[in-house]
Specification:
alpha/beta; five-stranded mixed beta sheet; 14 helices; 37% helix; binds pyridoxal-5'-phosphate
Length: 383
């Protein structure tokens, strides 16, 4: 185990690798189990499951505990991490853990689409009302507001929020804060230190890093971790040990991958900003991006995902541009080593997106100059 005094790269190398879990191996092995065998009835009747104690496959094995512990160590101030079979399951279970019928949830208008869908369908059916707010503004909590959901930067349009300010406001009113921290990860935005109660990661993205696995993780303070983990077990959530192992594998190299994603994405964003075909470049580290000042104040880096505006082009021209690209795959998700592109049409209900005709890039680990050449040839074919 690494202590809280270690720097983040060391934590990534050491985290979760307890001797009692890995034996003499470097890595904690894949432990597959539904049944756990007990030596006696007394042991069987030991009471409620504890994390890190073999009980039943649902409560995990050392493979899961290793990943959960490593993720918890990245967030000083956190009490634990619950693992899920997708980032979306992590989001929905975190919401269910804090909301009850009659409560109101505040959610940013730029929230991840499937999160919005869950709020508008399942939460609504169970008597929780979601009120969306402009991600570039400060929401006004109401009498029934129980939770404030944050996603910074926002999905598709990348608005950076004043997370420390909003958390302080929520805390003063007894409102729980949840942050979808998938874009920054704890490496570029330590959430608990900013005052967040519950931090959610689609570990599918940068933790796993190779576009071959779905994992969700929720890291929470002592007040919120136990109820959250208990609810996850009550709902029967589990993560396959093979996938948990791939998560730990990805985590070891996350810092170096993120730094390269950062450098390459900045290079592409700056190159795009200088192109006549491009309007706004919605990259948190660039001044075009709403909330750029909060990124400068609060973040330790920027990752590989950003959006830009194709100026004066209609949807057909945007499609033609995207299909002309050779090194950017067309597909959902991001955070892997490969570059991706998508047309982006935000669904908003209470605020306007910063621009229309948007294209989202995930900048992978290819040589950034090859990626720029690819964008340049696609622009040339546009004329
Ligand atoms: C991808 C994503 C999720 C969901 O993760 P999955 O593992 O794909 O379910 C949640 N939030 C954000 C911001 C995402 O980009």
């Amino acid at each position: 185990m690494s202590g809280p005094d270690k720097r983040v790269e060391t934590k990534l190398a050491k985290g979760g690798r307890r001797k009692q879990w890995r034996g003499s191996l470097v890595n904690v092995p894949v432990e597959r189990a539904s049944t756990i065998l007990f030596d006696s009835i007394a042991e069987l009747d030991r009471g409620r499951p504890e994390l890190g104690t073999y009980r039943y496959g649902l409560q995990g094995t050392a493979t899961h505990w290793a990943l959960a512990e490593a993720l918890t160590e990245l967030e000083p101030g956190a009490a634990g991490t619950a693992l899920f079979s997708s980032g979306l399951a992590a989001v929905t279970t975190a919401l269910l853990a804090v909301l009850s019928p009659g409560d109101e949830l505040l959610a940013p208008d730029a929230v991840y689409g499937p999160t919005r869908r869950f709020c508008d369908t399942v939460l609504k059916r169970y008597g929780v009302a979601t009120r969306y707010y402009d991600p570039a503004a400060v929401p006004e909590p109401g009498e029934r507001t129980r939770a404030l959901f944050l996603e910074s930067p926002g999905s598709l349009t990348m608005e950076v929020q004043d997370v420390p300010g909003l958390c302080a406001l929520a805390r003063a009113r007894g409102i729980v804060t949840l942050l979808d921290n998938t874009w920054a990860t704890p490496l570029f935005f330590p959430a608990m230190a900013a005052g967040v109660d519950i931090s959610i990661l689609a570990a599918t993205k940068y933790v796993a890093g190779h576009a071959d696995v779905l994992i969700g993780a929720v890291t929470a303070t002592a007040e919120h971790f136990r109820p959250l983990q208990t609810l996850a077990w009550d709902l029967g959530h589990s993560l396959s040990p093979d996938d948990a192992w791939l998560g730990s594998r990805g985590l070891r190299t996350m810092a170096v991958r993120l730094r390269q994603h950062e450098t390459s994405a900045l290079k592409l964003a700056q190159w795009l900003k200088a192109r006549p075909e491009v309007g706004l470049v919605l990259h948190p580290a660039l001044p075009d991006c709403p909330g750029h000042e909060f990124w400068k104040r609060d973040f330790l880096g920027s990752s590989g995902l950003f959006t830009f505006e194709l100026k004066g082009a209609g949807p057909a021209a945007r499609t033609a541009f995207i299909e002309q690209l050779e090194l950017f795959g067309i597909g959902y998700s991001w955070g892997g080593y490969e570059s991706l592109v998508l047309p982006v049409d935000p669904v908003r209900t209470v605020s306007a997106p910063p621009a229309a005709n948007l294209v989202r890039l995930h900048v992978g680990l290819e040589d950034p100059d090859d990626l720029i050449d690819d964008l340049a040839q696609a622009f040339r074919k546009q004329q």
